[in-house]
Amino acid sequence: MPELRKDPMSGRWVIISVERGKRPSDFGVRVSPKKGGFCAFCEGNERTTPPEIMAFRPGSGDSNTSGWSLRVVPNKFPALNVEGQLERVGEGIFDKMNGVGAHEVVIECPDHNSTLSTMPLKSVEGTLWAFHQRMEDLRKDNRFKYVLVFKNEGDDAGASLEHTHSQLIALPIIPQLVEEELFLSKQYYSYKERCIFCDVIRQERDGKMRVISENEDFIAIAPFASRAPFETMILPKRHESAFAPHGNFDLLAQILQRTLKQIDKVLDLPPYNLMIHTSPFKDETNEYYHWHIEILPKLTKIAGFEWGSGFYINPTPPEEAAKFMREADV
Amino acid sequence: MPELRKDPMSGRWVIISVERGKRPSDFGVRVSPKKGGFCAFCEGNERTTPPEIMAFRPGSGDSNTSGWSLRVVPNKFPALNVEGQLERVGEGIFDKMNGVGAHEVVIECPDHNSTLSTMPLKSVEGTLWAFHQRMEDLRKDNRFKYVLVFKNEGDDAGASLEHTHSQLIALPIIPQLVEEELFLSKQYYSYKERCIFCDVIRQERDGKMRVISENEDFIAIAPFASRAPFETMILPKRHESAFAPHGNFDLLAQILQRTLKQIDKVLDLPPYNLMIHTSPFKDETNEYYHWHIEILPKLTKIAGFEWGSGFYINPTPPEEAAKFMREADV
Fold first, then answer.
1. Which residues in chain A are closer than 8 Å to B17, comparing Cβ atoms?
2. Structural domain boundaries of chain A?
3. ipTM of the predicted structure?
4. Mutating which of A131, A176, A224 best tests the B interface, going by the most B Cβ atoms within 10 A?
5. What ranges make up the beta strands (E) of A7-157?
């Protein structure tokens, strides 16, 4: 019999097919090989992107010239506009506001063919530092309440450019999914006086079957109520409400790249989405919320049942996914 | 500047690109042509599906033989099992229950190549009657709290079989997205003592720019905060909390098929998902919730931003979508 499982942090129910679990080779969704051609994110083409917001340049060198190891540029086709005032207005029964926000692209390394899983570990660490620095900067703009960092790997996951990159969008409102996690984790805290994420980590470390890997500071797990096959969550083992006060990005880069290598190995280069969930700017230091990275390989299709219910059907139990990941030789 | 819009019924925010709105021809996502070959849903192959639950047979004729105009059969690969007791158990901090539920397939008409948009109007009406009758029957099983009716058209929308069909899943819990709509519509009702859906219909009929079509009993609109290009909602114009007490399925079939013909014409046979939202079994007659059909053409990809935030980016303003739909010659 399938199992209905509830994710205690989001309130989301999923249907897990525990009997005829799909194995990695049953999916066959793969990132298309890169086609090459002109690429605005490649070294030498700096002038074809909007002027850079920041960059890491190991040598010296001017902005928007070559010699960088990482660049952050405004998205050429932003979902939100960075200029303008926030204005909330009604339209009869409806509410709307100006689409004010920042939409930036982190070009993670100069090499067109690298991915987060194959680039030098130092570049992964640099990428995490770039997220951190951009958040520090965007926090000063009091129009913004939240910064969502995300990455789309592969066209099936929504990437429109091949060259490895992440994105961040600063928003004037707290996203609904984060609000829901905040609400439930506050509720848990008011009852238990403990962080629900800390409790989940404790239980998973005891049980071990959904733990993928650990290092001194971080843990990667297959969530009990994974929405999708091989969903993975990376969390700091000690309580940290926001990304990332201690900046121990060497260890985070290590577990992140290891996890992505495992995903690439087990699923043969699947498309995936990666998201960072953190506490909102106005409430960054708290006892109840715990920042984390979510990785969702894009192996199944979202259909009418999911769109209509908010339920997900996951054909691979997370216990099996974690085992495949643990056993991957990376 | 883009616009942030909030859907008052679900609390969902969307980013609408009001300036460089994408036109229908910009998407280019199309249902793949049918390949044919053996089909378990075609007439003559009745024995290859699980035994039918109900069927419309204009002549007489035995169950599971030809001569039908519509069949309902159990899904051969059900997401939930119809046998078994509900059992809620904890696993430390986690909650789970047996995956008890019903998963049925409505084979809408015998013709392999028809779609809801091209089949005889009588078959669309028959399909709605089948939904209704199955709900009436499943309601008697007190393990079930909700029945979600949905349809996936085209493989990009998650359809795994070509032959036109819909599905329904009876669930032991109320889906999260429906719970959210119930919560917000109750809140609105407690403040205004009016149904929020009725108020939206009133406002849209006054403004007209998001109205796609109307008949005596139903209205089709492009929601103010559409999640996706050409999202469409069909609602009864008079307050009805659950699907569908008056059974005026001739008029519903008419507006539904007209809407799907418009979508097919404007977008050139796009894949889509269709879902019915209705009040849960235990609370079917109420003043605050209003059943409706949601249709989501599958033109854009769900990427990290949507997965991480619950926000949607919609490149086509609903006002433009409604205009294209109104002007489609069907």
1. 79
2. 3-327
3. 0.94
4. A176
5. 13-16, 54-56, 70-74, 88-91, 94-98, 102-107, 146-153
